[in-house]
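assembly run, all chains below
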Amino acid sequence: MEAYVAGGWGAAVVIVSLYAWRVVHRGRVLSRSLPDEERTWR
Amino acid sequence: MTTTSTGATSTGAPSTGAPSTGAKPAGAGRSGGSRPGTGNRTTRVVGVAALITSAVTAYVGLVVSPPDVTQGVLVRLIYVHPAAATLCYVGFGGCALASLAYLWPRTRSPRWDRLAGASAEVGVVFCVLTLVTGSIWGRASWGVWWTWDARLTLTALLLALFLGYMALRRTGEGESRALRCAIAAVCFSVVVPIDHYATSWWRTLHQGNTLLGANVKIHGWQLTGMLLSFVAYGLIFAWLLIHRYRVEQLEDRYETVGFSAAIAARRAEGGG
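ok done. output:
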């Protein structure tokens, strides 16, 4: 039963972390594509 | 919209005459690094608060909270599953409210469209998390990973509908796309209250509300841990939503800059 608990908590950490990384990465890529004065991703 | 960001990655920056990569971004000196920071004061406060409350929730949920009389250690999943489901509703509900604000002529603004898109995407992430953790819990307590129970089926339907909504956001452009998406979001969000009340309206395998109603079913450290998990997930949701909204802003800006660059290039060709 502990394996299921670990699986549930692990899934929560992995899914949220991966999505957070993806959002930040997308923002950084887009920000680099804009001229300096247009960048709002600070 | 995401296609644009992918395009930015693969084709490089639009030709605006400004340095696209390698240049020190404005404001980099403030943070002291060569990479542009992703946070401001608000997101940093929310992010740190989310990390702290998540750590406290994990400590209370995995160490302090005692096993349940009937569920045993499986009760520790109550600190990850219900909060995810609630934030999934918040994401889709927020998308619907922002869409309504966009549809209302007096409040129509691209900001509401961006907020709707950001809220839907974060809601989809929490919906996936709900289904994954629910499936794990179901396997442990019911013996199956999935069953066509009303609550489970409606949650899966919500996920499918809002994945469709995200696909719709990638088709077309401008106000017609935003209007189409806003109408779709309002229609799709009708499933949210049906999903929530599914355990009351139909006989389901899924248990009913634990916290809502006159008869609260948990107490002590279990109740504390569950409430903490709602705070932690709420802060994580807020952090993700703010960042996702800012990515929407960048995508809109990228489209505008790219379009302006294309016009300038065409004019230069005509002049030459």
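The two ends of chain B are 33 Å apart (CA to CA).

Chain B touches chain A through 58 residues (CB under 8 Å).

not gonna interpret more than that til we talk
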